[in-house]
């Protein structure tokens, strides 16, 4: 949209002052005409006018939607019916090599080369005590691989170099995400970084737009539901005539390009859940087997746990059934109203809620997803969640804005036309990093998962160990925590640490892991040891008592580096708690250390490199095992 003329701005100002919109407070004390306005006033009007670039119908429609949502918000939550979804499938164990598991994993892995990946990365780590973007957090501190690198490298390994990968950013994260991508130096030709805009805030229940202390319009993110409209509106340039050489190109919708290239599925990933790379192939395979258009990734949910529930619902008796996420606070109220024995206290004999919990890894049949995008323009149902300052429900404690959720696109998939279901994985597959240590301590005290940086790293190592044990690797270690964090609120176990990069582990399937360890019975890794494997490596026989890095070739045409009859002993690594809040503020500790509550002391590391003969001994990397940190 081009810059508006003064007449455009005057017309908008007059429209906003009509009784239906009632925004006259924005222009109090202003001159009568825009021609007489100063630069600051023109800038505010231009901001209002340009809002139509990101919101259908512009600011006027946004205010109307605000009126409607605020009126509805004051009513009681009302559902005509709420039931268990019929299409719920139990995934086989992630760490048992059964025939069912192998068949599903292989089928899903084969589908990954026809899959589009979307990473919702609009969040900062402030809630964790981390000042940068969440995708720059390391999955683990053994190799310090960031979540962004972890997802991108895996997607390219399973989907090929040309894999379509979308990252949704926000104003807070966009520049830092681009900087991180430059630092990673990954060549991803079909990477699309789409930035969501921010929406205006309302000051009260009359939907008056809020101004900040400087007189500018207050804005906040619209929520991760924007990812769908961003994808719908994204375009890509392609040659009109392939190989014509005349440079002629035309822009076409990105989703059309994906369909034309033969992609069949699209997967949405949250910013910090490394376990998603293990669940996605199973979800893809089950989606294909049961002809699902949308497949929610779920876990068994503890009653009152603060995650959404997958439910079959209808708002009114004549409405079509929908299978969608219902937020936990809404579920408790609706369930109690509809069922005599309802509420969120109800559990089945296992101790879990009968309704599975949705963890926001979403799998779609691409053609069905695109159909819904074209119909809706990517706009998903919105909501508003104001906090009122008193019982009159007129004033807000702080300005509120209209929001949307990525998973609410399910509300556009009616049961009459689409098959929507969920795949339930064991709880251990869900490894998000979304809480500070202090918040985690409170959750653990209530019987919930900690879901913090400390448990995210520990769970990542444990999932790898369990899957290696499933292929026959004889790992023996205590289940007791090695270190306690958050003022001894809970403990985590890290060792033995085994990290295989994506060149080594490929898709990460059990069959791929078995190719790395073809004779697992000949491999012994002590319970206090660390093994890091990079590149194409086959480990036939190894005894490890300490820390070892093995580096093989990265060229897919090169023969793998074979480790045979190796014995390694050294001082290895150890883990130490950050003992006090004072130490937690110590400038010699990084934010990554502080939000975990522990540090790895990297005393010694042996290195086997395919480019050098034999084995070398390396001390700790600079700064990684500084005793002053401990």
From TrEMBL:
Sites where the protein binds UDP-alpha-D-glucose: 120, 122-123, 196, 223-224, 270-271, 308, 327-328, 358, 407, 430, 434
Keyword Transferase applies: yes
Keyword Nucleotidyltransferase: yes
Superkingdom of the source species: Eukaryota
UniProt record similarity statement: Belongs to the USP family.
Reactions that this protein is recorded to catalyse: a monosaccharide 1-phosphate + UTP + H(+) = a UDP-monosaccharide + diphosphate
UniProt xrefs under PANTHER family: UDP- GLUCOSE PYROPHOSPHORYLASE, UDP-SUGAR PYROPHOSPHORYLASE
First-level EC class: transferase
Residues where UTP binds: 120, 122, 134, 196, 271
Alphabetically ordered keywords of this record: Nucleotidyltransferase, Transferase
MF terms (GO), sorted A to Z: UTP-monosaccharide-1-phosphate uridylyltransferase activity
Residues where UDP-alpha-D-galactose binds: 120, 122-123, 196, 223-224, 270-271, 308, 327, 358, 407, 434
Name recorded for this polypeptide: UTP-monosaccharide-1-phosphate uridylyltransferase
Originating species: Leishmania major
EC number: 2.7.7.64
Essential cofactor(s): Mg(2+); Mn(2+)
